[in-house]
Fold:
Amino acid sequence: MRLQGKVAIVTGGGSGIGQGIAKRLGCEGARVIINYRGSEAGAHETRRAIEACGGVGEVVRADVTKMDDLRRLVDTAWEKFGSADILVNNAGMEKRSDFWDTPEEEYDQQMAVNLRGPFFLTQAFVRRLRSAKKPGRIINISSVHEDMAFPGFTAYCCSKGGLRMMMHNLTVELGPLGITINNIAPGAIVTPINKALLEDKPKLEALLQKIPLGRLGTTDDVAGMVAWLASDEASYVTGGTFLIDGGLMRDYHEQ
Structure:
């Protein structure tokens, strides 16, 4: 129970990687604000899983692209649990389109969810920490594509590259406040969003051949790293991107 007494906010906690993270933090002793936008049933499933291992979860609907919702998300942690110690910026989205066909609204949507949301939610979180003179942990769920080319997903890559630079800058700005910030960059992870890939055996096999460990990652693989970064064991760790990709980036090549 290395997170006993801590309070965590996890965006996109109703499905996929976010759900796995919220469950892990809750079972490690943290009280968890489980944010969702569309997956209400999934968010309540997350809460029940946390309660089943003796933890406490609070479900909060909030759109990370809306400023009022972001502030309310942070305020809820203080109102329900008296403070917050850990912020996990997990909510994200991606859409495929060739660069020359990418519409403005699709670009704006991805930047709003993947970069603008984490920027202003982190700002709201840090303001509360500064006022309370508290240290804290910020963990961004980025992607191997914060650094690795992904043809057909240029807008997505731009948003994740921006998230990496935000983390680098805030390492310097927030360090004197006792606030750490790190990115986790998953590769190919088994989640509902990858259902089509998992059912396409030739495409799946081609991908597995590019991964030195020869398998897809799991949400538990990502959640384990989040739990460590959120703990006191990682109190001197800040400013890094941690790859959870089975070695994909070290041997990646296009067909």
Observations:
- The domain at 7-188+218-241 is CATH 3.40.50.720 (Rossmann fold).
- The two ends are 45 Å apart (CA to CA).
- The CA atoms of residues 83 and 143 lie 29 Å apart.
- The mean pLDDT is 95.
